[in-house]
C-alpha cells in the first residue's frame, strides 16, 4: 500500500466518481481505477459497490476512509516539518479567500511574499466565507482570509485588516442627484446583492438590522455570486447595492457608480487557520507580512503561535 494509492482512494471516495477524481488528480481514468483495484485485490476487500454508473463506499470502504485520511494527514504534517527545515527555500502555501479579499486585497501580499521567498509556491482558491472556512477546517487550505465573521471552535480567527461597505447606485438611478439618504428610503428601490453565505451579504444584512431595517423588506432583484457581476449589474441600472470600497472606488472615480451618503459600520478582514494543525514557518511568515500593514499587533500574534 502506497501513499499514492491512499490519495487516489480518498479522492474517489469523496467524489463517489472515478472520472471526476482522475480529473482532479490529473491522472488517467485507467490509472485511477487500477489503483483502486490493486488495493482491493491486495487485501481481498471490496471498497466500493458499483451501482449503475455510480459507485458507493462499502462498509469496509467507509471504515478504511477514516484511516486513509489520517495517514495522509500525518504524511502531510511530516512533509511540512521537512519544509520548515529547508529554511523557506522550498515548500508550498495553500491559501483560500473570499472574493473581496482575494480579488482586491490579498494579491499584493502574495506578490511581496513570493519576492521574499521564491522557493515557496503559492496557490489561492476563491469562494465565499462559508466555503473558505470549510476549506481550512477540512485541511484543504493552510490559511484562509475572509470578510465575514466566523464562529467555529476548530478555527483560530485573528483580525487582518479593516474594510468599509459603501452604498452605491448606477449613474442613471433615481437617487443619483440626492444629497441625503435615510435608512427608511432603502426599501424603496430594487437591490442587487451577493449570494447568501457571502461575507458581504452577511455584513450588509447585519448593518440593515442596526439601522432598523429587516433584510426581508428589501426588493432584491438579483442575487449574484461575484462582486464583478454585482457591480456590472448596478452600473447597468439593475438596482442599488452595498459593497466593499475596494470594489467600488475605481467605478465611482470614473463616474460609472455614485456613492450615496449613508454610512455602514466598518468590518474586518479576518485571517483563519486550524487550531490543531502545525503552523509552518511559511504560514507564520505570511501572517507576519500581513501584520506589518495592520496596527493591531497581528505580527506579534502570528509569532507567538510558532512552536518552540
What does this 3D model show about the protein?
The chain has twelve helices and ten strands. The protein has 308 residues and is α/β, with parallel strands linked by helices. The chain is elongated. The chain has three domains: 3-84, Winged helix-like DNA-binding domain superfamily/Winged helix DNA-binding domain (Arc Repressor Mutant, subunit A, Orthogonal Bundle), CATH 1.10.10.10; 87-161 and 269-304, D-Maltodextrin-Binding Protein, domain 2 (3-Layer(aba) Sandwich); 163-265, D-Maltodextrin-Binding Protein, domain 2, CATH 3.40.190. A six-stranded mixed sheet has the order 4-3-5-10-6-9, sandwiched between helices. Strands 1-2 form a two-stranded antiparallel ribbon. The longest helix has 27 residues, at 59-85. Residues 295-308 have low confidence and may be disordered. The chain is 44% helix and 25% strand.
Number of helical stretches of at least 4 residues = 12
Based on CA atoms alone, the radius of gyration comes out at 23 Å
CATH class of the largest domain: Alpha Beta
Query: Helical percent range?
Result: 40-55%
Q: Major sheet: order of its strands? A: 4-3-5-10-6-9
Q: Give me the CATH architecture of the largest domain, please.
A: 3-Layer(aba) Sandwich
User: How are helices and strands ordered from N to C?
Assistant: HHHEEHEHHEHEEEHEHEHEHH
Gross morphology is elongated
Task: Please count the beta strands (DSSP E, at least 2 residues each).
Answer: 10
